[in-house]
Amino acid sequence: MSRGIESITIKGFRSFREVRDFKLRDLNVIIGANGSGKSNFIQIFHMLSAMVNQGFAEYVRLRGGADNFLFNGPKETQKIEMTFDFLSFRGGQNSYSVKFIPTDDSEFLLSEFKRYGSSRWWNYGPSSAESRLPEQRYEMSEAFPEYHGVGYYVYDAIANWMVYHFHDTSSQLP
């Protein structure tokens, strides 16, 4: 199992032009004013959950299509990029990176990459409409066959996320 997410980098997603190396812990509480991006940040984790459950294309379609996810729309943003770094129990870092490339029919093609530590990025395969994360859930390491590979740990971490989204809609301060 992966120990959990360590940091996230976001480019071109909804209200986030660019967020670099945002540190996270096992439990994170996001508090802020209305319109500050809290719901958009949480949507990232819901979107990744849809990806591990092979429901990404439907998730995008039900939320207005690909253009609705792009920072300031398609005229300003040509793709969304996200990178997630996870600490592993072996002490290294498993990383997952995904590029969301909008298509003419308002869907996305996903280009996915993985790496362990500071090694080079490995492509999951050709771009596709659904994530290849589920295909990686039983991956074994090529270098150390007795251990699971990066894809296993990334899938495991994302598949086990629990996201809670609370709204305070009260009109009075306590």
Order of helices and strands: EEHHEEEEH
- Rg of Cα set: 17 Å
Helical content band:
10-25%
Give the overall silhouette: globular
Q: How confident overall, as mean pLDDT?
A: 90
Determine the structural class based on helices, strands and strand pairing: alpha+beta
Q: Spans with pLDDT under 50 lasting ≥5 residues?
A: none
Number of strands: 6
Beta fraction? 25-35%
Order the strands across the largest sheet as they lie in space.
Answer: 2-1-3-4-5-6
Head-to-tail CA distance between termini: 42 Å
Number of distinct helices:
3
Please summarize the sheet with the most strands. 6 strands, antiparallel
Care to describe what's here?
There is one protein chain. With 174 residues, the chain is an alpha+beta fold. The chain has three helices and six strands. β1 (2-13) and β2 form a beta hairpin. The chain is globular. It starts with a strand and ends in a 15-residue tail after the last helix. 26% of the residues are buried. The model has no long low-confidence stretch (mean pLDDT 90).
Short description:
The protein is of the alpha+beta class and 174 residues long. The protein is built from three helices and six strands; from the N terminus they run ββααββββα.
Layout of helices and strands, plus pairs?
Layout: E1 2-13, E2 16-23, H1 38-52, H2 56-62, E3 80-88, E4 93-102, E5 108-116, E6 122-123, H3 150-159
Helix pairs in contact: 1-2
